[in-house]
Predict the 3D structure of the following.
Amino acid sequence: MSSRLIIALDFASAELALNFTQQLAPQDAKLKVGFELFVAAGPDFVRKLVDQGFEVFLDLKFHDIPNTVAAACQSAAKLGVWMLNVHALGGDKMMLAARESIAGLVKPPKLIAVTVLTSMDQAQLAKLNISQAPFEQVSHLAALTQACGLDGVVCSAQEAQQLKQQCGGEFLLVTPGIRPLGSQSDDQTRILTPLAARQLGVDYVVVGRPITQSKTPLAVIKAINQDLAE
Ligand SMILES: O=c1ccn([C@@H]2O[C@H](COP(=O)(O)O)[C@@H](O)[C@H]2O)c(=O)[nH]1
């Protein structure tokens, strides 16, 4: 069965990332390439992972005017990635343009939108003049995302149960801020364990540092996959 684990490859170079990925097979996990690695290693590195058979989530959180985001989504889709994302705060016109830009492809990537970053709590939202609790804001942005025809959202696992009720089972929930028991929370605030996330209905968990900074990453991956298969 295909893994529900997405490993965040937050490495500073292609070499460091490849040292890590060469231990993995595509069935172990999907791989996420975000800002750090993409800026360092570029689209060729993404193509290399795709050619090796990995399902790649290109996490560049596009957030710009509709025309720019639509073009960026097309370029990203041409890399053969499995999933890509935009920022829901770009608004409905931007999300609609993004969706339209890849709709005609033979095998379009899944397109999802970031709601409220998992590093943010209510106090951080208040500083942005958002007075709602994180769930209220996530719920609002998820509704907007779904109305634009996207495949799902990035949110915290803490919001998963209510979001599944709101949006239905087919709407994908992709959740960073996942921490196995005993690991550090780092800069994440809205966190849950892999097992709790899966029990609440999350489709895919994103895990970076607890795996990539572990001395025994393969053991951590195996334990998380077991939890997700429960
Ligand atoms: O709300 C969000 C959106 C994206 N991320 C990304 O996920 C990983 C998490 O890494 P950890 O080391 O497990 O904290 C990272 O690449 C973020 O850019 C997120 O954390 N929250």
Observations:
- The longest strand covers residues 56-62.
- The pocket of LLZGTKA7 is lined by residues 8, 10, 34, 114, 117-118, 154, 176-177, 186, 188, 206-209 (CB under 6 Å).
- Residues 35-51 form the longest helix (17 residues).
